[in-house]
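Why predict the complex rather than its parts? Because the way molecules touch one another can change local conformation, and only a joint prediction can capture that. The input here totals 623 residues.
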Amino acid sequence: MDARFIPEPVHLIRFAPELLLTVFATLIMVLDPLTKEGEKHRLGILALVGLLAAAWGAAVAAANPGTAFSDMLLVDGFATFFRYLSILVGVLTLACSFAYLKREQADSGEYYALLLFSIAGQCVMVSANELIMIFIGLEISSIASYVLAGYLRDDKRNNESALKYFLLGSFATAFLLYGIAWIYGITGSTNLAEIQRVLSNRDIAPSVNLIGASAALMFVGFAFKVSAAPFQVWAPDVYQGAPAPVSAFLSAGPKAAAFAIFLRVYITAFEPIADQWQAVLWASALATMIVGNFAALLQSNIKRLLAYSSIAHAGYVLVAVTTHSQIGTAAAMFYLAAYAFMNVGAFAVVTHFARQGERYVNIEDLAGLGQRQPVTAALLSIFLLSFIGVPLTAGFFGKFYIFKAALDANLVWLTVLGLLNSAVAAYYYLRIIVVMYFHEPSESVADLQSPAPGIQAVLWASAAATLILGVFPSWVLDFAGKAALK
Amino acid sequence: MPSTYPEQYFPILLQVLLGVVVAAALVGLSFLVGKRVKNKVKDTPYECGVNPIGSAKERFSVKFYLVAMLFILFDIEAIFLYPWAVVYRDLKLFAFIEMFLFIILILSGFFYIWKKGVLDWQLEDEQTFQQKKQVLK
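Output of the joint prediction:
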């Protein structure tokens, strides 16, 4: 046995965010039974400290780029970008959760511990350099998310959400794992760079059909996790039933991390067979946009509407993946960051407005919010306008870069159909704004308190980020452009 | 040395065929030459076992599932100890630290379930016992 299995200290530094998150999550889990009822929010503050420590760890890791643990992890700009994004989504979710958990009288250490474990899994995913690590990270993240989706275990909607998410999710992961097994059988390696090397040499690769089949199997797993058509059916039910802050988390954090591994696997390992998978992704991107946008037109429940909108936005990002170019990857990264802010912001308004037991989750309930709470309504309008892609918001540049990348890659029809789709989307987002400002105030806004401090912080931070990315997109785009996979 | 795919997988194909033939032969032979006896005892789930005492579609206490789950977790821990023991001599201190951390993680989970009362059957049993006595009266 030689010494190459013993990690060097620098490997542990590159693994710092995951280590810190795990330590804090375990600590919270152990402290939970020792904390009195009514003081559990202190564990939440500890979780916040853990997330900030993890962000610091990600910065330290980024200063020492390279591989770790026998090439199983790769800390590059791409991994660092998504690590920051996951941790940031975690911070925003946590800030929303304090008020929510207090209101539902469900404050407990498990919630915070599971959140940290899920983020640790996402950090493993995005910095994984080989398929087994991708799978392990995905499972760490998913299993914690399944539990979070059913967190209020006495609530029937939560139970439905968690059960559907768990059953369909584990089924999809099985497809991914089967695809990994095939790839290993064909190429003799799970390392992404090695797979790329074998696949680009068509003399070694035994059969193009076999490779295509395994890429398709892995596509099923990834498409499920990013809620791309035709594997999107779970998303509305899960986002509708899960606690509102958890829905915010699920549609921003795990989705971004899933896109990260999607991009990494397809842009590095499967790049040599791009001519085979591009058509599949083309069709999936188009179907995802159409299903998401047209189903969203019919929704009356705002969480369900945001779920379909989340599907549609996954479609736009898939357009960027379809280009399999560096500029496309950068556009996808920018879009995911922009989407995370506006989406968490919109769900924060839902968290605030739904009140105890999530009674008010219909769009009509928002009637009169513009008069009753002009600030909240204005901030929600910013997020909705950004969803549409109005200039001066992050959503505009997100869509602009994606469709520019698509045109550069000669995907003219996909661009045209995508733009038509965003026009359709404008209808259902504007409808919410119309209800808020121009409908007679309903009784649902009568007893509305002002938002809790945590939710207010999330609203202002997300709105500021949405506007800053809309005015100075280069701040994030330059980072993404440098970090994008070649 | 077999080189092509069909050659490499030929033994596996043979094994699959053998499996099918053996299974089919066992079932088929007992179907063809076996005696047919039909009575009540023959139809019970375990012909030579304990007599059934009721429907299996009962509600079980969730504690059984918890114990089953925890058993798997701690069982896996024990399985990890075997390869660790094999390479311990080569990896020395590093292996010791790694296993130490691993066991700390497992123990923190153990501490959690203990404090949460998962292992505590006594209290609940007393209550259900009293309830059952009430129902029987």
